[in-house]
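Section handout 9: paired folding examples.
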Amino acid sequence: MSVQNLNTFDPFADEGDPLGSTQDVGSQANYIHIRIQQRNGRKTLTTLQGLPKEYDLKKLLKAFKKEFACNGTLVEDEEAGQVIQLQGDQRLKISTFLVQEGIPKSTIKVHGF
């Protein structure tokens, strides 16, 4: 009597990439993220991150503040790099502003409630 299923087979062994060299699957690096954060009470904060390096964030922040009549600041984050923070819910205004400036709408992700 011989036992056939005693072969050494490791189901978790590396067999290469089954999807075929898709190293960017799930990466969020090529998107511009517009998020909203709740502060206290009715106060909210809108954050913008992931802008390409060719944009001057200080000039963009100044244009946002003038256009939307709100205050804002540029914050350095260790994970996300430089993040623009604006007072209030400015998500749709930022999105339309960036589309008018020539950024494709498919690269902009708007998050929040």
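Moving on to protein 2 of 2.
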Amino acid sequence: KAAEEYDPHPQYKYAYDVHDSLSGDSKSQVEERDGDVVRGEYSLVDADGYKRTVQYTADPINGFNAVVNREPLVKAVKTIAAAPVVAHYAAPAVVKTVAPAYHAYAAPAPVAHYGPAVAYHH
């Protein structure tokens, strides 16, 4: 059996970036290693529409540490109120109520008929 090679100071760098407009998949990652220290960052779009970016480091002294940031993909739009418009005629507001397509039959409530009140004196 051949002896495995040992690198006392491993080093590498890699990166990838995916933006698939058909599936909506969007993610990227970069990472590099220099000896026992690894640094990197990756990002992806979560199901709730936020982009998550994780920056991480790992080394023998501090272990693995990550900082996670989330930001919405759609920026909030400021609404600016328009100046009021003076109108000489304003149409009345019309509210249309639409009844459901089906109706359950309800019999009318029974009506009790009572005669006139009678007063008795003893």
